[in-house]
Known about the structure:
The chain is 49% helix and 23% strand. With 124 residues, it is of the alpha/beta class. It has one domain (4-123): Glutaredoxin, CATH 3.40.30. A five-stranded mixed beta sheet has the order 1-3-2-4-5. It is globular. Keywords: Disulfide bond, Electron transport, Redox-active center, Transport.
Amino acid sequence: MATHELTEQGFAEVISNNDIVLVDFWAEWCGPCRGFAPVFEKSSESNADVYHGKVDTEAEQGLAAAAQITSIPTLMAFREGILVFSQAGALPAPQLQQVVDAVKALDMDEVRQQIAEHEANEQQ
């Protein structure tokens, strides 16, 4: 599987229609982004069960702003529509695979429970 270009128009649909989605927020002028691109592409080939999307922050400024991107590259991981990982900086291949493995291993019932508890505490 290859990486997919994501736009603001289809972003929410991709997140909700795929179990696991990794998103690389990048820009053409960003040296670390260009260095991370082949690592991300290789991950898409090694992890065909994970949707790998790329957001060009220059072309998709509204989406980047909505995602609160302040540094690039930024990697986000979504599982069952829930943001479970977000980190700025280019990752080497072994660390990217650790992120993928950790996201795959998440107990999503536990994650949803933790979110509910956190939201309940904030409302008090």
